[in-house]
Design brief:
The protein is an alpha+beta fold. 22% of the residues lie in helices and 39% in strands. The radius of gyration is 17 Å and the shape is globular. The termini are far apart. The model has no long low-confidence stretch (mean pLDDT 92).
C-alpha cells in the first residue's frame, strides 16, 4: 500500500472535534529510518508494519506492508521496542471527501498536536488547500516522523518547531 500524505502542526483544534470518531494508539519501533519496523495497538487492532521510503528525502510518500498480529504477540513485542509513543487520533472530515487524522500526543510528547491528510491520488494532493486551523507544514521535516518523535520529548520538539519558524521568517524577510 502506498501512503501519500502531508503533515502539519495544528494551530487550533476544530470546535466540534469531540463529535468525530477517535482511537487511542500505542506504537513502538524496532528499527530506524529509512525503513522502520513498527507495531501498533489501535484500540485493540494490532498490526506489524514495515515502511519503505519511495524517494530519498521525500517524507510524504511511503510504501507500507501491514500485517495483522494477535494481542498476545503485540504484548510480547512491546517491551523490546527501542522507542514508543502514545496518542489519540481523531478522524475529522475535510472537503472533497478527504479526512484529517488529528494526533494528540500523550506522555513525554504531551502538548504536540499534528494533523495528517492522506491522498487517494496525485491530483487530489496537488489540489489540496489546508484549512485555516492547520498550522506549519512539517511534511518534509524528518523529525515529524513518528519514529523520530518517539525518541524525543515535547520540549525537544518545541525547539525544532521554533527553529523552523525562525528559518521561515528569515526567508520571508530576505525576499523583501
Amino acid at each position: 500500500m502506498i501512503e501519500n500524505e502531508f503533515t502539519f502542526l495544528v494551530k487550533k483544534l476544530p470546535k466540534d472535534l469531540k463529535r468525530y470518531p477517535k482511537k487511542r494508539i500505542r506504537q513502538g519501533y524496532f528499527s530506524d529510518l529509512p525503513s522502520p519496523l513498527r507495531i501498533r495497538d489501535e484500540d485493540g487492532e494490532y498490526t506489524l508494519t514495515k515502511k519503505f521510503i519511495i524517494k530519498e528525502d521525500d517524507f510524504s510518500r511511503y510504501n507500507e506492508i501491514v500485517l495483522p498480529i494477535k494481542k498476545e504477540e503485540f504484548e510480547r513485542l512491546w517491551p523490546v521496542c527501542k522507542k514508543t509513543l502514545t496518542k489519540t487520533r481523531y478522524y475529522y472530515p475535510l472537503s472533497n471527501g478527504l479526512k484529517a487524522e488529528i494526533d494528540i500526543y500523550h506522555k513525554k510528547l504531551k502538548g504536540l498536536v499534528t494533523v495528517e491528510v492522506e491522498f487517494p491520488s496525485e491530483e487530489a494532493r496537488k489540489k489540496f488547500r489546508p484549512p485555516d486551523w492547520f498550522g506549519l507544514d512539517i511534511t518534509q521535516k524528518d523529525w515529524s516522523n513518528n519514529l523520530i518523535l518517539a525518541g524525543l520529548t515535547y520540549r525537544e520538539v518545541k525547539k525544532l518547531i521554533d527553529k523552523e519558524i525562525n528559518v521561515r521568517k528569515k526567508k520571508v524577510y530576505e525576499k523583501k
